[in-house]
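re: ur question from the group chat, yeah i did fold both. here u go
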Amino acid sequence: MTDDEWSVLDPCLESADEGLGRSWIELQIQSGAACLFTYGKSAAVAFLKGKKLRIGLAGGELSECQQIERQIEAFARMQGFEQLEIVGRDWRRALPGYQKVAVILRKPL
């Protein structure tokens, strides 16, 4: 991953679980357990969780993150995932179609 991608994702790591750092995330992407999505100056990392694709990190401009979410949803549908999840802030106002499930937003595909 580039320094530009990390510049928007690093703030997300401040509130992330222990052990969730740059090297672990890059290893997940390299192994195929996670995917990096970018648009403009924004970025997101989605983790493969069985039949769910979980967006665990995202940062940048809201409108660009909305574009990334559409890219991730299209990818998830093409790959046969049944649900798309977002772990983190409550994005329901900016990304319609999700239901609040504790701190996890879930959207059936």
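okk and heres the other one u asked abt
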Amino acid sequence: MQSNSHHTTMALLTNFGTTILHTIGDSETARFGSDKLGQRRETFVSPSSPGNEDLYDRLMGLSNMSVSLNESYQPVLQPAVFMTGLRFGGPENGYMVDGIVIRAQPFKTGERYQLVSFSQR
């Protein structure tokens, strides 16, 4: 069971217009970062062809290749992004710390998040 202070903290974080998240060690907080960005529709393309065609038929456009498209909503950033791959400082990382800045208003890139680096020195 989670404490009231945990729920209060999560409610407070939800209300900030700008949030900076560094390497996160627990999946719940990583899900919070992912959920704060929401989801977007992604299209997945799956080509397939019968295995008995020869190379000549494929090169000449005589292939029986088919393509299927699937769409689904996926997180803008998966929770795992917040848990792995970000530098966490110290001499082994050149005293650099990575973070993901999330804002209510998009950056110039059109995204509401941006990967940033901070020096510990």
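fwiw on the second one: Strands lie at 18-21, 39-48, 66-75, 96-103, 113-119. The helical segments are 4-15, 27-37, 55-59, 79-83. idk if thats what u expected
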